[in-house]
Amino acid sequence: MAAPQLKSDSKYDDYDFPTTSPTVQSGHPGHTTPEQDAQVYQLRTQLEQAGYTERLDTLSMLRFLRARKFNVNLAKQMFIDCEKWRKDFGVENLVRNFDYKEKPEVFKYYPQYYHKTDKDGRPVYIEQLGGIDLTAMYKITTAERMQQNLVVEYEKLADPRLPACSRKAGQLLETSCSILDLKGVGVSKISSVYGYLKTVSAISQNYYPERLGRMYLINAPWGFSSIFNVVKGFLDPVTVQKIHVLGSGYQTELLGQVPKENLPKLFGGTCDCQGGCSLSDAGPWQDPQWTKPPKWADSRAEPSTTIQHEPSHTIPSHQPQGGSHPSPEQQGSTAGAGHQVPMGQ
User: Fold this and answer.
1) pLDDT at 4 exceeding the cut of 70
2) Fewest C-beta in 10 Å: which of 20, 232, 245, 282?
3) Are the C-beta atoms of 32 and 62 separated by less than 8 Å?
4) Cα dihedral sign for 292, 293, 296, 298?
5) pLDDT digit string (tens) for 122-158?
6) Which residues contact 86 (CB under 8 A, 6 or more apart)?
């Protein structure tokens, strides 16, 4: 029996990494049905007819289709909303020119970072929510720049992080493994964390679908599991299966997924990067053996001015520009926005 392969399109598919998903599940690359292949073609054709020419590769089409349960019309609208948001938000310029110089200071309150890989080869993403102090953070940065940084990191997850991890693993990797540390999130902060799990970040839900592989909520405070049982009702069952709520005795289960040498000492691992794991950006995407220049860094791209921080006395809205706007119930604060729980992921 022939090995499963992605049914590719020569016009748009120019991959230099493995394209068969290790997940033997319908709708994933290399494991699609003839009907799903036809839906990819239908979606791409309709988008071409609407004037779109970028990001029409097969892997992207499949992610949007999976996010909308292979409903072509819904996936088409999701893609169109995403493209409008990318243009309005200036994503192409941001990923090339954003300079987050204040990051070390912001991370003293709210570390958010990618660090090495889990046992499946996926990038590990870590957030520590216990020290969040928005009043202090807004003296250093702005909500707008925090959101811009979030978008840049999502873009870098897609390229070069995931392609580098796929090359090293020898199989397609499209998702990350997230660790959210709730240590220090006491009773007074439980409501905000409840909102974090209940709401769906407009950015991750609408514009970066199908990127959540696993999520570990560690050091969950007393009573948190009960709250999460309520939250489950707002999430897609597929998403719920990926989320693991753990208390202070999390290390055994977490180390079952993340190699000890890849996990920072802070969480029971042995990694102690020079200068701190949170600022190292260590991973296959830094190894010349596995990484390649990201496609967004193409030299043919138009140059633009570096985007730096300028002090502001106002706190910009967290609402993304363009695209699908979440309702008030769906909106979450920037705190924790790095990896909001996306429905259907």
Assistant:
1) yes
2) 232
3) yes
4) negative
5) 999 999 988 887 788 889 998 889 889 989 999 999 9
6) 92, 207
CB atoms within 10 A of CB 248: 11
Written as six digits, the tokens of 334 are 């920037």
Q: Residue 227's CB: how many other CB atoms inside 10 A? A: 17
**pTM for this prediction:** 0.86
Whether 256 contacts 220, CB under 8 Å: no
- What do you get for the CA distance between the two ends of the chain, in Å? 30
Look up residue 137 and give its two tokens.
């953070």
pLDDT at 219: 94
Identify which of 146, 113, 137 has the alpha carbon closest to the alpha carbon of residue 273.
113
| Rounded (10°) angle between helices 58-67 and 34-49 | 100
- C-alpha distances (whole Å) from 301 to each of 16, 97, 127, 295 are 20, 12, 32, 10
Average pLDDT, the chain: 85
Cβ-Cβ contacts under 8 Å for 231 (sequence gap 6 or more): 194, 197, 198
Q: From CA 116, how far away is CA 263, in angstroms rounded?
A: 8
Parallel/antiparallel/unpaired status of strands 123-128 and 112-117: antiparallel
Q: Within a 10 A sphere around the Cβ of 233, how many other Cβ atoms?
A: 8
Cite the DSSP H helix spans in 50-118: 58-67, 72-89, 91-97, 103-106
What is d(CA 238, CA 261) in angstroms, rounded to the nearest whole number?
30
How many whole angstroms separate alpha carbon 282 and alpha carbon 284?
7
123 and 114 in contact (C-beta within 8 Å)?
yes
pLDDT interval class at 190 (50, 70, 90): low
Q: Which of the two residues, 125 and 334, has the higher pLDDT score?
A: 125
In degrees and rounded to multiples of 5, residue 316 shows phi and psi of: -60, 155
The arithmetic mean of pLDDT across residues 278-303, rounded, is: 87
C-alpha–C-alpha distance, residues 101 and 81, integer Å: 31
Distance CA 181, CA 113 (A): 12
